[in-house]
Amino acid sequence: MSSFKKFWPKTDLTLVQAHELFVALLVCWQARPTTVSLVIGAGLSLGGLALRIWTSGYPRPWQSFAVYGPYRFARHPYHLGSFLALIGFCLAGRSAWVTGIMLAGTGLIFRSIMREEEVTQDRIGGPAFRDYRTQVSSLLPNLVPYPVSHGYNHTFSLSYALLKGERRELDSFVLLMVGYGLLYGITQLQNAAVVQMWLAGFLAFGLALRFFWPYIRQQVHE
Q1: DSSP 8-state assignment for residue 169
Q2: What is the C-alpha to C-alpha distance for residues 9 and 110, in angstroms, rounded to an integer?
Q3: CA neighbor of 49 nearest in space, from 181, 203, 182, 177
Q4: Which domain holds residue 35?
Q5: How many CA atoms lie within 13 A of 109 on its CB side?
Q6: What's the start-to-end Cα distance of the chain, in Å?
Q7: Packing angle between helix 35-56 and helix 170-187, nearest 10 degrees?
Q8: pTM above threshold 0.90
């Protein structure tokens, strides 16, 4: 276990990213999409991605507590966007057990991450954060926005969200489009199950290579 904890940071993957990639692999393997499921799922996923982009379009102040943008409506808008994008993709694929795995994993991972983030915000923001926490829900958006913090004067920037910011959502947009392209392609195939087996194997190999590549590169250099 200790060796795994030492190795994990070298992968440059967060638990959220690893979970998203794993769910995407399962969806592509087990998907039985229809035109209706694709439309419903894509609507949810694009809404979630739009929320992630909105959240990522503002520079985050790391040394102080501030309320701005979508944080005026929910304490964790980025995680809400991630959940909508994932649940949409699972619904598009129409696999009940994959959706169940996604919900269980998302619940466990997001709960831990949100608790850790709020401990940090409480330490930094003190009474201001506690007042914010009592008036703004965690994930369910408020109808009445919380006031923007005094002193925060950054405006939303699409280029910052997609290319320059901390999260760079262009990658997420491309992956989402590729994922839905694959699901649409499955609806057009006669022997979709065979293609899905090969596709799942290819994605699993890619995920394993992405995970172990830092270790392999380290061994080669040594």
Answers
A1: T
A2: 18
A3: 177
A4: 2-221
A5: 17
A6: 24
A7: 180
A8: no
Residues 6+ apart with CB under 8 A from 133: 75, 118, 122
- Residue whose C-alpha is closest to residue 85's, from 17, 30, 144: 17
Measured between alpha carbons, how far is 219 from 222 in angstroms, rounded to an integer?
5
Q: Count the domains in the chain.
A: 1
CA 67 to chain centre: 21
The C-alpha atoms of residue 154 and residue 160 are separated, in whole angstroms, by 11
SS3 of 127, please?
A: helix
For 101, the token pair is 């795995």
Reading the chain (222 residues) residue by residue, the pLDDT tens digits are: 444 444 444 445 577 777 888 888 888 888 889 999 999 999 999 999 999 999 999 998 888 899 999 999 999 999 999 999 999 999 999 999 999 999 999 999 999 999 999 999 999 999 999 999 999 999 999 999 999 998 898 999 999 999 888 888 998 898 888 889 888 888 887 677 767 677 677 777 766 766 665 666 666 655
Residue (of 112, 157, 150, 126) closest to 16 by Cα position: 112
Cα distance between residue 133 and residue 61, in whole Å? 18
